[in-house]
Amino acid sequence: MSFTIFSNSHASAKCALPRTLQVGVGRAIAHHGELLQGVFSDEDGRLHRGLVTLPLPQIGSVVTFWPDDSEDIRTRPENRSKAACAAKLAFQELGSPQVAGCLTIETSIPIGYGYGSSTADVIAAIRAAAAAIGADLNRSSICRLAVAAETASDALVFDEQAVIFAQREGRVLEYLPGDYPALHVVGFSSRDDVPVDTLAMAPARYESTEIETFRVLRGLIRRAIREQDATLLGRVSTTSATINQRYLEKRHFRTLMQICENGGGCGVQISHSGPLMGVLVDAKAYDAMARVVGIATAARDSGFTDIVTFSVNVDGAPVQNTSW
Among 164, 128, 121, which Cα is nearest to 146's? Predict the structure, then answer.
């Protein structure tokens, strides 16, 4: 299936030539909350809300755009309005606002648990739209369009690259110097913590001492990534999660910390706006997998649910395990 389309006269020269509209496919991974979230300064010293996402590359969204001669962009399943909006914005960005068709959304990401399912759908839809007209969109443009479609967006467009990302602006505050250290993660949820609508919440008003702590944590996470130090990364993540207790409390945070300490984890991490939490394990430890099993078992015995194990930047690691 293909159509020939012509860009608007006001579009850039890059988009000024006729394009053949075809079936386009886009993909995006999930995430498991954040390693760090707070406020961080830009090059001019102005503060911005930002975060460092913990990628969950084993699951994701695949969106396929099927062009047709209808009058709008629809989705299957229906009512994925953010993904449809994102595709429309992408076609407008590329000088082809008249394109219509259907977005088929296939996802392995649980919806409503804080895994970034909405952002993954949006990013995959933007990539599918670009692929449908054989065009490229750089990551900064995709971020800008994603924020326009859903007000705030996670840094999923960067896959497993570590960045400090201003989620409400769609811009990178800092590209961190390398890949994440090799990690195993035991993730889980509590039935006593429920997802929240972060856009409806008043943003956290951090105290001056916390803002100074974020400045220190920024330097430490930079060092942890540069030196591939999983233990230091875990300290950063634990401190960030602890600060968040003042703003969106995890009711069983103390139990989370105890499981980490008893199981040999190098730190804890959370979704700062949802029920997800996890224990980080240094994948280079000689008994790393034994620690993972022990932590997952302790989480199950403590009443946590939706237990998963996955790895980040570990060669030959097993795929995501949900059999706990």
Answer: 121
